[in-house]
Amino acid sequence: MVHETPKVKVSDLTQYGICPRLVYFRAREPEHAELLISGNERIMIERILWKELAFNLHKIYGCEVADEVAEPEKAAKSVLDEIVDDVEHIYKKELDAVAESVLDDEKREFVCYIVEDEEWLSKARAENELLELQQMLGYDREHAMVSEKLRLNGSVDKLITTENELIPCMIKTGKSPEYGVWPNDRMQLAAYALLIEETFETTVQRGFVEYIRAAEFRESPIRRKDRARALQTLKHVRRIKSGAYPDKSVNAPCANCVFLDRCDTRITLLSKLLGKNV
Ligand code: SF4
Hints:
By secondary structure, this protein is α/β, with parallel strands linked by helices. The protein has two domains: about 130 residues, Lambda Exonuclease, Chain A; about 90 residues, no CATH class. It is about 55% helix and about 15% strand. It has twelve helices and six strands. Strands 1, 2, 3, 4, 5 and 6 form a six-stranded mixed beta sheet that branches. Helix 1 packs across helix 2 and helix 3 packs across helix 5. The longest helix is centred in the first third of the chain and has 19 residues. Bound molecules: iron/sulfur cluster (SF4). The site of iron/sulfur cluster has 12 residues, from helix 2 and helix 12.
């Protein structure tokens, strides 16, 4: 019997970096595929709002309306009001079960937080190459790509096309590193680079990560070692998707994991079988 190589998403590689067992459970419970962390719907709403803000950042950066230049908070507020109005339509599936009052509270708090955070606003308006490129050239939102060779697919948050290059950009709603880009984010960028290269027959030199909470926009070259790590992770993920049960990662975020019950049971069973902690 011929076993087909399992299809892998770039998000599987990212999940592997957080905890390899997330890949295992997500492959078996696809209804939870989008729910990495459970338990706190406010956290989910907050992430959605930050992400949508990142998709609209060029409007704050650009100060599109002349008289708004003098009143940056007012300009930001009008962009933010637009963003929060749209989220339930854009993220219908994710927000369907959320009570209207919870969503409204979160939206209100989010808008107030940003408008009052002068440091964030001034960083989001400060000159930087990424926002300049986005303002000049725009970007393809959530650009989907498939590599038949690698059996890998994924949607990069933003794909910027310049005269000479294609640049993948990822939006991250978590903490930013002091300098540069987290290793896992570099690996994810490299995975998108592999997809872009096969789709467009080009070579990707660099990408960007937008750490939106901190208004930090970091460029990252696509290094050989990041490409190698992406390919290595792809192989691990394929094995897990073919049925291998992996060890959990050292810093696995178990406390908030949707799979905690199943995972604990399996640990107990395996521990009993093997007579040791797994
Ligand atoms: S409960 Fe912990 S070890 Fe299990 S999948 Fe979730 S994060 Fe990983």
